[in-house]
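Handoff note, outgoing to incoming analyst
You'll be picking up this chain. Sequence as last confirmed:
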Amino acid sequence: MEKSEATYQYCEELHGNGMFFITDCCGNRMYSVDNNPMKYHGCLCPKCFYDNKLVTLYLRGTPDGIRVIKEHSSIGK
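Most recent structure output, in case you need it:
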């Protein structure tokens, strides 16, 4: 099984009833009734897992997320 890391970002639902999460690996859009932006930090992307890929998600802007972006960025290479 393929293994990698990616980041995700979130935005709050318009009325404050949960959050939308968008993964940077596959563009998967998820909704959570939980208002916790760290909800998927360190978890596997459900869509990638369904496609037989182990992609660990990290929230953008956190130390883990910054590390993943730096390691996988083609900027400056």
